[in-house]
Amino acid sequence: MKTFKRVLNIIMVILTVTLLWSCNSEGAKKAQRIREIKIGVTLYKESDLFISSIAENLIDIAKEKESSEDIKIILNIADSNGSTVNETKQVEKFINQKYDVICVNLVDRTAASTIIDKAKLANIPVIFFNREPVEEDMQRWNKIYYVGAEAEKSGKMQAEIILDAYKENSNIVDKNSDGKIQYVMLEGEAGHQDSSIRTEYCIKSMIENGLEVEKLSDDIANWENSQAREKMIQWIKSYGDDIEVVFSNNDDMALGAINAYDSLNIDIVDRPLIVGVDGIQEALQQIKEGKMIGTVISDAKEQASAIFNIAFSLGKNGDIDECIDLLDGKYFKVKHTKVLKENVELFYN
Ligand code: GAL
Ligand code: CA
């Protein structure tokens, strides 16, 4: 009996030790789990003011999150510098280095399939932003997402800014009192959803709201300040005081138009009304100074925070948190706000 008890004791000790050992090793495994999330980001062109502001916001948000949660966040932001080849290489690098999520600001929004196929093969989700892939590409896989703004609304709001000014005092807009609004349109890149849709909805809204419009000219200035400045100088030479409104698909080109007027020393009262989109700080400054009538904010901070929240949730849980409300399970579109001299201080830092 004594021998039996001793054997039983030995068995119990062995069992307890084994159990403790296995619990500890389970604990050690848990400790190794999700202590780090790797997010790779590619930008179509870092020199683009609006894009760089999204990137800066992403860095701030990641830092905040890292200090509030016990997770290391590796955020690697790469500049494609306008080259699809660079961008594809960067994505391949993120895949080889086993990043958890890849965020892509496409150089060519019509050519997302190569990136999607590579990411799908490696099972790494992709969040596109600002340059929207075509619908067909968005359907290629269920782990692709898009964060951007509502292009239609921004165009409509540009029109509203001019319509409101007209209602308040028609002479401020229709300077030659011919009952028509003579305008020029500075357009972003050809084929970019925010160029074509903003242009279309802006003019459509003007007409739908009963204003007669006359296009003096329009041209592509690729979102760029310097290109817009050159076009504007030409237009001022050709049309002079006839230009009553300058619609610009973004703020940086609107700033280029202002530069043109500044460089020709044309008095502010003799200039057309200039309206942009984005809400970058440099444009808000011009609104304060009365050189731009207004802009439509396309909240870079909110876009960055949507990109980050989706990426973080995918990196941490492999899925989208319930509190993130996506359209069709894929799309997140940020709302716009109109900014004029009256409310500019609310947004100016
Ligand atoms: C637009 C923005 C432009 C430019 C462009 C780049 O949404 O208004 O300023 O940043 O995206 O794709
Ligand atoms: Ca007129």
UniProtKB/TrEMBL annotation:
Alphabetized UniProt keyword annotations: Calcium, Metal-binding, Periplasm, Signal, Sugar transport, Transport
Molecular-function GO term, any one: metal ion binding
Subcellular location per the Swiss-Prot or TrEMBL entry: Cell envelope
Residues in Periplasmic binding protein domain copies: 39-314
Organism domain of life: Bacteria
InterPro entries listed in its UniProt record: Bact_Solute-Bind_Prot2, MglB-like_PBP1, Peripla_BP_I, SBP_2_dom
Name of the protein in question: D-galactose/methyl-galactoside binding periplasmic protein MglB
Organism, as annotated: Clostridium celatum DSM 1785
Lineage of the species this protein comes from: Bacteria, Bacillati, Bacillota, Clostridia, Eubacteriales
